[in-house]
Design brief:
Layout lengths: L13 H19 L15 E6 L5 H12 L3 E6 L11 H11 L2 E5 L3 H10 L4 E3 L7 H12 L16 E5 L4 H13 L2 E5 L8 H12 L7 E4 L2 H5 L4 E4 L11 H7 L7 H7 L6 E4 L10 H4 L6 H21 L6
Parallel strand pairs: 1-2, 1-3, 3-4, 5-6, 5-8, 6-7, 8-9
Helix pairs in contact: 1-5, 1-12, 2-12, 3-4, 5-6, 5-12, 6-7
Bound molecules: phosphoric acid mono(formamide)ester and norvaline.
The site of norvaline has 9 residues, from helix 6.
EC number: 2.1.3.3
Organism: Delitschia confertaspora ATCC 74209
Keywords: Amino-acid biosynthesis, Arginine biosynthesis, Transferase
Amino acid sequence: FAPRHFLSIADLTPTELVTLVRNAHQHKTAIKSGSTPANLNGALSGKTVAMTFSKRSTRTRVSTEGAVVALGGHPMFLGKDDIQLGVNESLYDTSVIISSMTSAIVARVNKHSDVAGLAKHSSVPVINALCDLYHPLQIIADFLTIAETHPASLHSSLGLEGMKIAWIGDANNVLFDMCIAAAKLGVDLAVATPKGYSIPPFMKEIIQSAAASSPKPGKLIETNIPEEAVKNADILVTDTWVSMGQEEETAKRLKDFAGFQITSELAKRGGAKEGWQFMHCLPRHAEEVSDEVFYGPRSVVFREGENRLWSAISALEAFVVNKGEIV
Ligand code: CP
Ligand code: NVA
């Protein structure tokens, strides 16, 4: 029996993506009102979920540990200095051993090939907790956050078709999975990056095949002019300009990204929709978004952060409890 892994939003059909977001919403509503859904109650009782993290994390660690506990299981956090992986033992040996004693592996790695390698040799589901190309748990939380502003739609399909997201900043892991999700959900995504930082061609192909999997795909628009991306956008979103692992490029990046900070003046100049909202996966640095926007009334970043918990519960239910059957 080959386990089903969750390495990217690209692993989901459009219907499965909607289901993961909808389930996250239903579990959030039920658990917050004091009732754990019967199928989740003790669903991981007596089971261990390994969390192998080779980079720091606040949200992903807290939400995953909390989600495993909510399902009655034991989260075992294994930081980069705790285990032999990458220093004293191969990916193959580590994967075979950890998966022989646990029910799932949630892994934060540097290279996508590392999480793919773990998955290849694991006898239990592997869930990607961030690599250099993808961040699927974040994107489930992000679309839950967006869908919550259209509560009626959460009962069937998300009904977000025709909406426009503007991403202003670096073309990175969070953006790539967001593009794949937007394409599948019929949401248009305009990406403004400085010259030299656009989405690489191989990733554009992956986004195009995501679009081909959708009956009503969202459009990907690319530009180097932030105002152009912002035009008529419902959501303005960004992430750090310097992802973990790129620290050596900090000075160059700060220079190259000058003029890409999200501010209310940018939203006004570019002509964002009247009720535009701001999102950010966090951690945030002041250069990519002004305090006024980040802490202002349009910002949904802290609800987005909390939604990581509900996203993790939904993903564990689908991939670990239900063994990859997303219903
Ligand atoms: N958004 C996110 O993944 O945050 P952490 O790096 O703190 O987990
Ligand atoms: N793009 C960021 C996301 C952190 C959650 C990074 O990779 O560091």
